[in-house]
Design goal:
Elements (H helix, E strand, L loop, with lengths): L14 H6 L2 E5 L4 H13 L5 E5 L5 H4 L12 E5 L4 E4 L4 H5 L15 H12 L4
Parallel strand pairs: 1-2
Antiparallel strand pairs: 1-3, 3-4
């Protein structure tokens, strides 16, 4: 912290919670489908286990250096802070859904690519 910073304040809003969260969603904040996907997840994450972080925030590399260099335009990537693994698109659904209260039952079905792709598309449309 620099001089004059309030005690307990974090230098980058959301950074501390992203570092402590078991799962980080990195997304293209300029893409409507990505924003709808993240909004859907955030509404269901009643335990605060998923933190959303836009690619446009330069601090993302500090939170999850494994995401550096991945395609960003129109993309959503999931980063598991426990295993340090990165999954993209529909491939992240099993690990992501298993963390959402009440949605874990769907995680085993999300390993099936056709179902995962359908559900991922559904979420990018905002659940419509």
């Amino acid at each position: 912290m620099g001089p004059g910073a309030p005690e307990g304040a974090e230098p980058v809003p959301g950074l501390s919670s992203a570092l402590a969260a078991p799962y980080v969603l990195a997304y293209d904040a300029e893409d409507a489908g990505c924003r709808r996907f993240v909004d859907w997840i955030q509404r269901r994450d009643t335990s605060g286990l998923v933190v959303s972080f836009p690619f446009q925030n330069a601090e993302l590399v500090r939170v999850a250096p494994e995401l550096a260099g991945l395609p960003q335009a129109g993309q959503v990537h999931g980063y598991d802070a426990r295993t340090r693994q990165v999954h993209s698109g529909a491939g992240m659904l099993p690990s992501l859904l298993s963390r959402l209260p009440g949605w874990g039952w769907l995680a085993p079905l999300a390993v099936l690519a056709p179902l995962a792709n359908l559900f991922y598309g559904y979420l990018r449309r905002g659940g419509k």
